[in-house]
Amino acid sequence: MTEKLLQYLWNHKIFKHFDFRDVEKNPVEIIDFGKWNTDSGPDFLAAKIKVGDVTLAGHIELHIKSSDWIFHHHSQDPNYQNIILHAVYEHDMDIDELKNKNIPTLELKHYIDQNMLWKYEKLLNGNQFIGCEDIFDPKYIPAGFHKENILKKLNEKSNELEKSLKKFKNNFEAVLFHSLAYSFGLKINAEIFRQIAESIDFSIILKVRQNRTQLEALLFGIAGWLENPEDEAMQIWKREFDFLKAKFNIPNVQIHPKFLRLRPHNFPTVRLAQIADLYHQHQNLFSKVIHAKSAEELFVVFKEIKASEYWNNHFNFGKISNVNQPKVLSKDFIELIILNTILPLKYIYHQHHHEEIAEELILF
Q: What is the Cα–Cα distance from 278 to 201, expressed in whole angstroms?
């Protein structure tokens, strides 16, 4: 949930029902939701509500949490003196100033369809081939729409890949590695993962991929996570990284991935470990994906991929999790990888070899 999304839901009145009650269980009727204010000041202006028998006119302020009122320093701001309602996604504390003025607080999370929030988060973080591909019912999609848009998307992505191929001298295997890293990073870490991948000469990946620990160490070290080992596993990764740095004269560069707004299973630690396992398990990965004749064949390539055993009970370094299970790739994630990375690369590879396979890819 973001404040912008909450404002959007309020502005368009997207709630399961409108039998609102404030945090004191008093009924609150929204007569006028107000005008969305995109400038400074309260979020919605000239609103009107009814609490009990009292009708109030004024402004409405929205926050993710009630405590944001304090963190945003609204108390002494004259722009917020005519607030008639504090609408929040989650009520985490009482605001004495508002209570003393009898300004109701409305907690909205129980009025919002959580399935819709899941779809929003998937659109935001999924980095899908077609952003809303799995949200709309196929029966409402016009005939020809699917084919036309897939071809359009393939052409768009092929243009991006052409730039990478030019940059890396038509090294398709290296570009596959960079593109996979981008997809594994999802929206939050996509560019950062690509930078990590591109910072390592692909010839080094080819030389160390038989040793998964070394490949992990290489990725973790470039990510800047091995400076201060917190446990034995980290000490091993650091030792291997220091050895590889010296052996291959790897520049002293650190590219730090982000953890903010990510679910633990999407943490960059887990995703980089899975990339390492992918290249460790499939020594001829490029050949397998290029010559695959169906989505099922591609799925087989990815379905056994998982982070190394350390990550069974870790999401971050040195912090043991209560969850103890292998960190495998979900079916949805594999489908994203196939759509975002594999199919566009197959498309452009066969274009370079003067082979037309667009129709074949549409059937994947």
A: 18
